[in-house]
Amino acid sequence: MANRSTAFWRGARDCLGVPALAVSSALAGYGVMAHDNGLELSVTVASVLSLWGLPAMMTYADLVGAASGPFLMAVTIALINIRTLPMVVAALPLIRHGRQLRWSHFVYAQFISPTNWAQIARMQSRLSAAERPPYFLGFSIVMWIGVTIGTVLGFEYGAQLPEFMVQTLLFLTPFFVFLMMSTSRRRGGQWAVAIGAVMVPLAMTLSPEWGLLVGGLSAGTIGFLMGRQNQKAEP
Amino acid sequence: MTSEPWGLLAVAFAATYSWRALGVLVARRIDTDMAIFEWFGCVTYALVGGLMIKAIFFASSGLATVPLTDRGLAFVAGLAVFILSKRNIGAGFVAGIAAFALIAMLRT
């Protein structure tokens, strides 16, 4: 039992530092962006903790700001977050204690993000199976506190900062997410982000309502096919 | 201009948590190398990457007041460091943000 408590605090301590700082800064940028798009603070914080992924949050803020309907929101967010499924599948066996399905697994699933997934994978050999769930929770809870503070500070005080700092925070979030999207190791993903970078904004200019979906589906499919072609060509 | 942000958040949460819950149920049974998952991944990369480019270069507010050349220079600087550092996200991120802040500070 003492080990579980120690593991929890170890996870919390490991998050206090670069991980919490990096994620909170990005979320301060989201706070500024959400404020800029006309959202209220309460719904902004709720969007962070419920959607738990910068691409989905930014899309949410963007679509709310653009007064989009629920259908477009559901389809776009579902498409964007399909990547959550394999991430949860890859992360959960590292976190859970035992194979039997438990309700707590559904709670862990909500906490999973690329940052804490990478951390638990890195710490896997240094933690016993029983220590992993509390370690993951300790790490994740500090992350949640960090992003909440970052979001609130960005939202509330973003306007009081010097203009160049506000502009930097507004630039920070989309730039960080774009870099995240550019880290795909697969050729298809690399092609898709390059083609999407041109095609999606163009399609959205032609059709503000459907451009995102049509542009994303087209660019993604072309990227996917080009990636398959590259795979065949490579030995 | 906003439209029912709480209602839309409920829709967005249901859409995103469905994948997480499904992930729990199919954990260890899913093959992430399946073609359909790669396709979904490609669509996501294209969709989100494109949306971020739109947020940076075709901003309707906030960043719209920053000259396009400033945004372009910072973006290229950050992306160049990211690529040259073998896609080190920290190095690219710091370089892009530092370049943007410096240009914006000098401009104001």
Give an overview in words.
The complex is a heterodimer of chains A (235) and B (108). Chain A is an all-alpha fold and 235 residues long. Chain A has helices at 2-15, 18-36, 41-51, 54-65, 70-80, 84-95, 103-111, 114-123, 132-157, 163-181, 187-206, 211-233. In chain A, helix 1 runs parallel beside helix 9, helix 2 runs parallel beside helix 9 and helix 11 runs antiparallel to helix 12. Chain A is globular. Chain B contains 4 helices and no strands. The longest helix of chain B is centred in the middle third of the chain and has 23 residues, at 35-57. Chain B is extended and about 55 Å long. Classes of the chains: A mainly alpha (235), B mainly alpha (108). Chains A and B meet through helix 2, helix 3, helix 4, helix 5 and helix 6 of A and helix 1, helix 2, helix 3 and helix 4 of B.
Number of strands of chain B: 0
Mean pLDDT score of chain A: 86
Instruction: Count the E strands of chain A.
Output: 0
N to C succession of SSEs of chain A: HHHHHHHHHHHH
Order of helices and strands of chain B: HHHH
For the termini of chain A, the CA-CA separation is 52 Å
Number of helices of chain B: 4
Structural class of chain A: mainly alpha
Radius of gyration of chain B: 19 Å
Helix content of chain A: over 70%
Radius of gyration of chain A: 19 Å
User: Count the helices of chain A. How many?
Assistant: 12
- β-strand percent of chain B reads under 5%
Q: Let me know the largest β-sheet of chain A.
A: none
* Multimeric status of the protein: heterodimer
Mean pLDDT of chain B: 85
Q: Which chains make the largest contact?
A: A-B, 104 and 77 residues
Question: What global shape of chain A is seen?
Answer: globular
Give the topology, please.
The complex is a heterodimer of chains A (235) and B (108).
Chain A: H1 2-15, H2 18-36, H3 41-51, H4 54-65, H5 70-80, H6 84-95, H7 103-111, H8 114-123, H9 132-157, H10 163-181, H11 187-206, H12 211-233
Chain B: H1 5-26, H2 35-57, H3 68-84, H4 89-107
Helix pairs in contact in B: 3-4
